[in-house]
Each structure stands twice: as structure tokens, then as C-alpha cells.
Amino acid sequence: MGRFRPSHSIFSHYNNGDIYNFLTNGGHSAVIIRYKIRKKIKGKKKIGSGARRLVYDLGNGTVIKIAKPKGGIRSNKKEFVVYKSSTYKIKKHLGKIKKHGRRYDWLIMKKYSKKFPKSKKYKRKLYKLKKLFKKNGVIPYEIMRRRTGKPNFQNLRLNKKGKIIVIDYGNFKFIRNNRLSS
Predict the structure, then answer these.
(1) Range with the lowest mean pLDDT among 86-90, 128-132, 137-141, 145-149?
(2) 78-115 pLDDT per residue, tens
(3) C-beta separation of 63 from 56 below 8 A
(4) Of 66, 75, 82, residue with least CA distance to 30
(5) Count of other CB atoms within 10 angstroms of residue 41
(6) CA 28 to chain centroid
(7) Predicted TM-score (pTM) of this structure
(8) How many CA atoms lie within 13 A of 28 on its CB side?
(9) CB environment 95-129: b (16+ within 10 A), e (fewer)
(10) What CA–CA distance (Å, rounded) separates 158 from 163?
(11) Residue 48 contacts residue 23 (beta carbons within 8 Å)
């Protein structure tokens, strides 16, 4: 039996056959999920794109992170696991996850619009936050640039009260018994 090939008009917003590769690995149920996602994002503004995920503003105070094949699913699952297993002290600094796909191919998160300020005050707060994460067994990758030590503004926002929120934590790691785990 031949492989299922999705219509290019339905999935045209994906690059270089990513959707085709995902669907042929995921089977027919992936088509239904992807079709539902396509309906959700139709006419919505794409606000971000990375190596592993696409991000759309759903217009209701939320965003949807759509996984690109394999790496994106791993990032979505990691964000969900980090969010659900973190203590309140940590969770209040993570973007709130509202829903996710059964296979983590999509994730709906609260939208945080207020940009992280380029000030010494907030840079100091970010250093304290990084220490708080580490103290609680979480290595917060990609909140600061490795070479320069400057904030990674793409992954940081402020909530309405001015608290720092990490909106992309798909690369965070847990420390368990002095060992790094992903």
C-alpha cells in the first residue's frame, strides 16, 4: 500500500516537506490532529519560528506552539513536564501552559506581551532567577547568552505585575542526585 500524501494546499505554511515527514511517521491520526491545528491557526498571525517550533497568536490571550518533526515534539513535552513538575516558586516564572496535544505536537500557552527590559535592574533580577532555578534543580538553558552573559530577550517576558516569565523553556534540564537529566 502506498504512503499517504497530504494535500499541499492544506499544509502549505510548513517548509521543506516538514509536515509530510511528520505525517508519514505519525500515521492517519496525525492528519486529523494537524487538520484541527490548521483550522485553529487559519488567519492567525505567526509571531515566531525556530528550528523546532512555529508559534501563532490565537488572538484570545494565548499562543499555540506547533512542533516541527521530532525536535519540536521533544521541546513541547519538555515544557509540559517542567511546568507540571515544578514547585510554585519556579512555576510562577514559567509561561502558563493551558492545553497540549496528546502527542505533544501542539501546546497552547498564555501570551505574555510585555518585553523584557534592557536595564541593569532586570538583569540583576534575571541573575537571581537563574540562581533560584538552579537551587530548585533546574538548569535554565537559553535564558542568557552563553558567550556574553546577556539576557536572551527572545525567551523572556514580564507578566502584568512585572515578574520575569520564561516563555521558551523546551531546553531546560533537571538535576537529580547531582546528575543532569533531560
Answers:
(1) 145-149
(2) 999 999 999 999 999 999 999 999 899 999 999 999 99
(3) yes
(4) 66
(5) 17
(6) 25
(7) 0.79
(8) 3
(9) bbbeebbeebbbbbbebbeeebbeeeebeebbeeb
(10) 5
(11) no
